[in-house]
Specification:
Blueprint (H helix, E strand, L loop, with lengths): L4 E2 L5 E2 L8 E6 L9 H18 L10 E8 L6 E9 L14 E11 L10 H40 L9 H43 L3 H26 L1 H22 L3 E7 L1 H13 L7 E7 L3 H4 L13 H11 L6 E7 L13 H12 L11 E5 L16 H13 L8 H31 L4 H24 L9 H4 L4 E2 L2 E2 L1 H31 L7 H31 L3 H24 L12 H11 L5 H5 L2 H12 L6 H11 L8 E2 L2 E2 L3
Parallel strand pairs: 3-6, 3-7, 7-8, 8-9, 9-10
Antiparallel strand pairs: 1-2, 4-5, 5-6, 11-12, 13-14
Length: 686
């Protein structure tokens, strides 16, 4: 049945309220949000991936997929509705030839746009408050980076000493050396980063309160007003939430109204709330302190990049009200034990705003963070289901890119929406998909570092500097020749003089070095992003991805090229700067080569976080520990019967289109190869 039917007049008649099976309420983060902005940002990737998953033929044939019924983006209450049909999950032991049962779910997606629910604060009030808040945010950022860069390697080293050999890639002595190198390098990288962040905070502390008075100076206002207004727009929302309870209440009212509207759309169906950044703080407060979620059929809360522990709750002057979001959530679960609210929290490992898991105090947050990497160490610190994810492998960008994380964010949200009837891959296959996805994202980060190193040092090598200087003069000559064609009888411009500030005596000047480095970095970073996007598509969008071994080899080629090029550049630069003797040159090369080998292997063997189930009591903690007693490994899962069967099932559905797709399928999946001829009733042996 369709959600909307065409009337005799040809218009679309919406389904009446109460006819949807599930409604999703999207809540945006800090900063201005235009009408339908958060709706489009998340509805498009959710519905696109939902359609792809529903049409997956390995789970059953049929008329499956997503059908958009309504996309009202311009009205006072924007809404997107759709019908999704998918093959019902088959219980274990179901015969392969059993008929496919099709499930239909009607979905409505609405937004809670709170950014215009209150009068903005003045710049002076915003920036006076921002200075002390900045220190809190920066210190949380330092704790996150310390955890990611040093504590993960350190805990990995300790854990590997207690791990059975069958779960390790290398013997214990080699594993110990690799883990120790990772920990030392992590510490060495953390120290300058921490120093830079502390210096930046120190510089900004006296500047922030002065920004508003400085705008009274005409030339400064003309120069910086746009940037400062954009900054104030974002920080102002946070200030309003923390410092002005009336405005904070107005934000929560928008969320409550959206949830109430979603309840009217589903009737007895389910309501899911999905909140990002500051919207997560607004939503958790509204749901667990001001509402009874069961009264509105709220069954699931998903938070991404949640600033719940960073922002806390609003503060009345002279009052210190404690805020315990986890305890509030647990209390609401017990209010209606038959329909407890489940909670999934996604945090990127480089996201400085979420800065890790959600907990009621910093000690429990650290314990829950550690359990995301080592579930065997789970403590009695309760909290929601934790998803430590890899978005971009780049600090600051991670916070705004959750909607692009198809495998670790979008897919789990879809499975929550569509319920237990929606089919899922075997655990071994899910583990492999996640592990390969993390390897790809880590490779993106390694290549990014290599690109910056190449771009920074290559123009400083004499031979490369001379080459770039000649390229500059050649290109300038081309421009001069083109200009000369239109100059008529006038003399052509002097090409060399026009770019003289970039080169001198056949070498790049300081300005030339800087500009060439910038152009090189832009080119290498763009190429890295393009290659990483391609390898990601082959992993999660191809109906039949490459076998794991082949994918590991193919995806490592760009990483090898980037790391090898960076190693050669670093070695050549050091030889030029240090001028060592022959033995020194060899030892320098050995050290650079060892570092390059380690960086090349790091994405493949680095520790990977896992999804940790929600912990609401001691029994949940014991379940987490029990599941971690037999950890999955890349080697074991790629050789498992479940993965081999899954791959064969996908290979049976291969239908490549075009020469490239056919050659790819032939090479890696054996598609189109003729069967061996039969001689004397038996197949000929190869």
């Amino acid at each position: 049945m369709r959600i909307s039917e065409l009337t005799e007049a040809g218009a679309v008649e919406e389904h009446p309220d109460g006819s949807y099976d599930v409604a999703l309420v999207l809540v945006h983060g800090m900063g201005a949000a235009y009408r339908s902005q958060i709706l489009l940002e998340w509805a498009e990737p959710l519905l696109a991936r939902m359609d792809w998953m529903a049409r997956d033929r390995i789970y059953g044939e049929g008329d499956h997929g997503v059908e958009l019924d309504q996309s009202n983006l311009a009205g006072d209450e924007p809404v997107i509705t759709a019908t999704v049909r998918f093959p019902k999950r088959r219980p274990p032991g179901t015969p392969e030839n059993a008929p496919t049962i099709t499930v239909e779910r009607k979905i409505a997606i609405v937004e809670a746009r709170w950014s215009e629910a209150f009068v903005p604060l003045g710049r002076a009030q915003i920036f006076r408050w921002a200075a002390p808040f900045m220190w809190r945010a920066f210190l949380r950022m330092l704790r996150l980076f310390w955890s990611t860069m040093f504590l993960v390697p350190w805990y990995t080293l300790v854990e590997h000493t207690r791990t059975e050999r069958k779960y390790l890639v290398f013997p214990h002595p080699i594993t110990f050396v690799l883990d120790l190198v990772r920990a030392v390098l992590g510490f060495a990288l953390y120290v300058p980063i921490a120093v830079f962040i502390l210096l930046l905070a120190t510089v900004l502390t006296p500047i922030l309160p002065l920004i508003s008075p400085l705008l009274l100076i005409p030339w400064f206002k003309d120069l910086a007003a746009g940037v400062i207004d954009s900054l104030a727009e974002s920080i102002g929302d946070v200030t309003a939430w923390k410092e002005t309870p009336v405005r904070a209440s107005a934000m929560r009212l928008i969320v409550r109204d959206a949830v109430s509207r979603a309840k009217s759309l589903v009737g007895d169906g389910d309501v899911h709330v999905f909140a990002h950044s500051q919207g997560a703080a607004v939503s958790t407060f509204a749901l667990f302190e001001e509402m009874e979620p069961s009264d509105f059929n709220v069954r699931h809360l998903t938070t991404v990049g949640a600033a719940v522990t960073l922002l806390g709750r609003d503060q009345w002057r002279g009052r210190t009200d404690p805020y315990t979001p986890v305890q509030n959530w647990l209390a609401r679960r017990t209010f209606d034990p038959d329909h407890p609210v489940s909670w999934s929290n996604h945090w990127a490992i480089w996201d400085p705003f979420s800065a890790g898991p959600i907990a009621d105090d910093s000690r429990k947050a650290r314990q829950r963070w550690r359990a995301s990497y080592f579930p065997r160490l789970a403590t009695d610190a309760c909290g929601p289901e934790e998803h430590a994810v890899h978005n971009t492998s780049q600090p600051f960008l991670d916070h705004s890119m959750y909607f692009q994380n198809t495998l670790q964010v979008v897919e789990p949200t879809i499975r929550n929406l569509l319920g237990p009837d929606f089919p899922a891959p075997p655990p071994e296959v899910a583990y492999l998909e996640n592990r390969l996805n993390v390897i790809n994202k880590k490779s993106l980060g390694v290549n990014m570092v290599a690109a910056v190193v190449i771009a920074a040092l290559l123009p400083g090598i004499a031979a490369a500097s001379a080459f770039f200087a000649s390229v500059i003069t050649t290109v300038a000559g081309w421009f001069s020749w083109v200009v000369g064609l239109f100059n008529g009888g006038a003399a052509a411009p002097d090409a060399a003089a026009s770019v003289g500030f970039l080169h001198e005596q056949g070498q790049l000047t300081g300005w030339g070095w800087l500009i060439v480095s910038g152009l090189l970095a832009a080119l290498l970073v763009w190429l890295n992003q393009t290659l990483a996007g391609y390898t990601e598509r082959t992993l999660i969008w191809d109906r039949c991805p490459l076998p794991v071994g082949a994918w590991l080899v193919v995806s490592s080629i760009p990483r090898f090229l980037y790391v090898a090029a960076a190693a050669v550049v670093v070695w050549a630069f050091l030889l030029q700067q240090l001028s060592p003797d022959a033995a020194g040159a060899v030892w320098t090369g050995v050290i650079v080569l060892a570092a390059a080998i380690f960086l090349f292997l790091e994405p493949r063997f680095a520790p990977v976080p896992v999804v940790v189930d929600a912990r609401t009591d001691a029994a949940d903690v014991q379940a987490v520990r029990a599941n971690a007693a037999t950890p999955m490994t890349l080697h074991a899962t790629r050789g498992s019967d479940a993965y081999k069967k899954h791959l064969k099932d996908r290979q049976k559905t291969l239908d490549p289109r075009g020469p490239w797709a056919k050659s790819w399928a032939y090479l890696f999946h054996g598609w189109g190869r003729k069967a061996a001829p039969v001689v004397g009733g038996a197949p000929r042996q190869a």
